[in-house]
Records
---
Amino acid sequence: MVAKINRGSSLYGALMYNQQKVNKDTARIIAGNRMITDMTGNGDNIIQQAMLSFENYLLANKNTEKPVLHISLNPSPEDYLSDKQFACLAGDYMERMGYGDQPYIIYIHEDTGRRHIHIVSTCVDENGNKISDAYEWNRSMKTCRELEQKYGLKNVTNKKNELSEPYLKKADYSKGDIKTQIANILKSVKNTYRYQTFGEYSAMLSCFNIEAKQVKGEHEGVSFTGIVYAVTDDAGNPVSAPVKSSLIGKSFGYDGLNKRMKHNTKEFKDGKWKPKIRNEVALAMHGSNGNRHELVNLLKRRGIDIVFRENEDGRIYGVTFIDHNSKEVYNGSRLGKEFSANCFNRLFNEPSDEPRLHKQAEDGNRRKDILAEDFPPAANEMESAIEQAFGIFTFEQHGDNPEELAFIRRIKKKKKKGRSRGIS
């Protein structure tokens, strides 16, 4: 379970955020503590009565600038708790964190693909003194581990991946709430995927049915560049009105993206991350026999998406690979000249005269077809087939990737063995 603790100055804002979801039937109030009402009925009345429950605490507040607590508790999507269990879980968490005697209201949210709860409370006691938040992060982590054991929940060790997981799926226009869908996906990929150009960024988002576009204009004589987002269908056609990046967050606008891309580029140049998919892509290209649909499917089975950019005549002028396993994005030229747009134009439009790749069977003159499905996922099992099959490619060393160096050494070793046995 992952806990997120936020503090603010607006009690009304925290209550309204949750009540709006209640009004849309994507959230419900399941419990409360020291609240004036049972929290059912008209939404406006609920907010008014809830604010009355906190009033004495906030009026007594002496110096705390942000007295409002807004906590979310997020079990794994694999866990299932009833409303009653969620209410007990929230009560246990608040008690162990020192807020057990405070007024609080518990909402269950069901609009993101995972059921989770939000708790609105105050960190100021009835005498106006702030409740200690010393070592809060460590105490919260310890509390989450204890509650996971008590309620039989999945242990979560990677907070970033756990929170991102439910949002890393395609946006769906039919489900509505477009802005929230786009915002959830953007926030999940922000620090999860690594990319160096806007082209790589937009190609990665297209895998989640989101289009990102740069818009340029002039305001009061000053030129500007902005970013807008829209939901698309599976063919990449926009099906929603564009949403300005400013409605989602500064980090998803032009300046914010540039800052992120510069950071990623520096780390790439410093060797902190490198492509790991060259061999997999090469295998898929040769296994596809020039069939574009087959190439896409072969890569997808290996957790790799490929996005082509084409002109009006259908000629490919750009290609981007999205490695979902390593959460990295590369333009083809960054992998090497063997994976540039021109190579894919030749692969699809100038196929080899032979319909299939072949290798000589060791037990005689019988020839065996090497079909796409015969290609195993690991490159080190295919050295001999690669040497015979690769006509337009040569593996070149890019940097000092240990896996790639070992791969080249194994090929050379097999060559020497072949010559020593008189095999041509």
---
Amino acid sequence: MNERPPTMTSTNERPWRVGIVGMGAAAQAFLPAFAKHPGFDWVAFAEPDEQLRLKHAQPSTDTSGPVGCASLSEMLALEGGLDVVYVATPTDLHLQHVKSALAAGCHVLVEKPMASRLDEALDMVRAAELSGKLLMVGHSHSYDRPILEMRRIIESGVLGRVQMVHTWCFTDWMYRPRRAEELDHRLGGGVTYRQGAHQFDIIRFLCGGLVSSVRAKTFDWDPKRRGVGAHTVFLDFETGPAATAVYNGYGGLSSMDLGFNISEWGFAQALGERSWRTKPPEGQILGAQAELAAKKARAASAIPGAAPHQPFFGLTLVSCEGGDLRQTPNGLSMDGPQGRKIIDLPLDQTPRDLVLQELSDALCGVAKPIHTGAWGAANLEVCEAAIASSHEKAEITLKHQVGLGSS
């Protein structure tokens, strides 16, 4: 992915006008990145929840802030129009909202997972192709600087060809406050869709994209908190590499124990600060209404902005012919023919800053994007195949994979 500073071409001398649909945790995490980027102007949002709408809408005395709308159709009808729509609504609404935005002549950035089912994702891709507009999928953790640097090292050939990638994550995901549909894999919920989407994106990004088959076992072992809460997935690639993705969201061991006590978003956390070790699991003890209220309250701080360390979405270990790569708090450790080399990486841009950089570069013709709709659909195909493989106890062959640079 291109690392140059964001630019605007002479064909787009004003910032791209952005509308956001859905103002939950994902959207709120993007607000600082939109505010920083000179190529985007956040002018409107659509949010049916009146309390959230009032929180983010412009004051009556301010004509420069975003306009709050009760629906996507209302936002798309605003005077002046929009150039880009960021879709951050619940997964089961993505198809409807993406197609509406494309039909209105907007480019679209949609949250992962891009849909509840692969056929919906492919429908979005076709709609984008017919409209002539860009469809991108993000944020995902392949935008983390250590993962980007791993890919750069692989492409440089200094360690030879990549052979294995393993990414393992242990959290309390199942016991955080959730909407019911977030736990239902039929609606794009559960850890395989919502967290596996990160893992499979990372693995495909590092191994070139073309997964040939998947063999997996998923787990639903807490009768008080139903849903796919853990998985072990084996991915075989057409080009030779093999990979594993392990995720356990049941709140025992923490990935921070494997990763220098650094959290998913780059903060040092001592043992006592890990909530599931010191508190009852919120999502398991709250009623439905109280759980939804807790989720809304958590949204504003669930995904912090700038951090003192690199993000740590579990442990990712890459084995190439000539050595191995893994994250460190500030970058990477590379063990190769010349011994161990520690590579520190900059903290000047967050992963969401890098999402918008890729989006801006694509819109301005500076660089071809990787995280396109076709790339996101290929990630979703892996999610769907993992669920099917576990159910059928069989290896699943994939049909909709795309390689790096070909999506």
---
Amino acid sequence: MNCLLKYIFRFLSLTAVLLAVGCAKTNPDEIPSYIKIDTISINVNSIQGTASQKIVDSWIYADNELIGGFELPSNPPILKSGSTQLDIFAGIMLNGIKETRVPYPFYQKISKTVNLVRDSAINFGHMKFAYIEGTKFAWQESFEQANLSIDSTARSEVNLVRTLLPELATAFPYELNKYAAKVLILSDSLVFECASHDAFKLPTDGSSVFMELNYKTNNPFTVGLMINGSLTSQRSVLVINPSSVWNKIYINFTPTLSANNAASSFRVFFTARKSTKEANAEIYFDNIKLLHF
């Protein structure tokens, strides 16, 4: 009899728990609203150069509160409803590193006031960003003109060549982009180096300075800064790894500039030696932009 009572007690206790769970109400504040972003592009004017971009994330703020960075296409949940101010930033891979993703400081945020509805999505589809007003383009080189603003240096044993590439029409559709720079290194012993003709006065106070670059290469190459001051020196900033297709990278010069705040000006340089893995090193780059505020 005692065993029977125990079984009955356990049954009633379990039934009570199940009824309590079944009757529990979901907290409405825990039901998210959603926005949906499929793709992103960049609008440029006639003096801003290429519209090529490699935006990989959308960074979302709701009523000035960071919701997070979300890989595209994105469908981020937002624990808000009703009229909400959304600020959307275009995110990049800093220095091409997948694990280091940040909003790009030179793309203008898109702000929208929307009416969020819980358990529903607002579809933004395709979003077009633009450069922030006041962005300074200290240097641009598209290689479309015969007179180049960059060339091989005196120590280089390999020439930089402007070359016609039909493949650019596919790599950068809807753009008048026919020429790029080509570097061909045939021997392990040869050094390649090229640098901008001009020296640039760039901010050294910690404000953002970036270089955008399109490239394709079967061989690593280095991008850096020649530093002009009481002494002239060179600082490597980033080694760019091989890419068998045309790629876009955003190179952060800010830390190097801040560490050399006594310098009077800077030139950008590229350098490489042939890897022993390749019979010939072939390096192509295009659409250089040096930007700051």
---
Amino acid sequence: MISRVFQDSDEHHPDDMPDRVETHISPAPRVSVQAFCASVAVATAVRAASEDRRLGKAHLSVHMGGTAAAIEAYHTAPTPNVILLETEVGSDILEGLDELATVCDAGTRVVVIGGASDVAPYRELVRRGVSDYVIGPVQPIDVVRAICGLYSASEAVAVGRIIAVVGAKGGVGSSTVAHNVAWAIARDLALDSVVIDLDLAFGTAGLDYNQDPVQGIANAVMQPERPDTAFMERLLSKCTDRLSLLAAPATLDQVYDFGADAFDAIFDTLRMTTPCIVLDVPHQWSAWTKRALVGADDILIVAEPDLANMRNAKNMLTVLKAARPNDRPPLYCLNQVGMHKRPEITTREFAKAIESQPIATIPFDSKMFGTAANNGQMIAQVAANHRTTTMFLQMAQRLTGHAVTKRSRTEFLKPLIRSLQGATARKA
């Protein structure tokens, strides 16, 4: 039945508030949606919504004529999963819905788009089984939210948030950033998280987390059948109580060529049970990497302060913004800033060229990062009070929209207890 109350169409506008974390909208499943519009404005908004990544699996068609056209069409044709109906000015909504009900198949859901003057019969709309009611004027994101909300509110659908981290150039440390941000999300924000290392040939997530799993992402992507939740759980390697890893094989005994949708089923399955999924995307531009980036809820581009990184970051931001018009623009950070004797583009000049500010400027510290990498540790484990550790936490907050969760006294004492236990063992 009704999934939510009236929605203000101006609630989420990424262009107006680019740094604001939007309410998470789960993608719609494979459903058929037919819209019957009474105005060109609504028809235009619905067509724009059909291009949104969250409706990528839905088949959405747009027709003109409003309620009358819908009733005429369904006299001779079966109804789809969802009917999107714009009411005509001055028409009797309830009478039209009663007539539509006589030609609708059981299980069809109806979303009504109406004006402010139509609010009065709202309860009657609910009684007649209307699944949702949106007050115009509508934007594409309102249409996306209405359709996706029908399923996220009542069925087992993807609930997890996907964060994709990619480098503007090879060797900029995007994997290190991804792994440390995921660590902060799991430890400090208390969100159950999974890191997926998508660099199958050369991935370093297993080394960074000091894990050597026998199975990982290759087992999932190369199996002929669609992976289910139980299968994916068996492939995950536990790093902490809240952080798991889907590791890359990091072997060269085969070539890893994939189609555009190779990882879709894996992402969809993990989203069913995992609140946060961090994708460590390799620096390459192929059909599947582009699809992974465009399909993510948030994107973080990692760049170094030089000309090639600046050009690549700008190109990536331009393409990804155009492909995701209803999402928050991709974010970026500068890494390895202040390397000794290396000429660099200043943060101010970089931001001016990119036309946005980085969410973090991570200083170059070869000793700290090298120690962490060689020990299979995170920066927070090597230098808990270092400002870079704080930066990773701030980035985690910015990407997820979650605040730091207060950890118990026992959790704070765990590192001290381990240290004391190690000292006692050495003395013995």
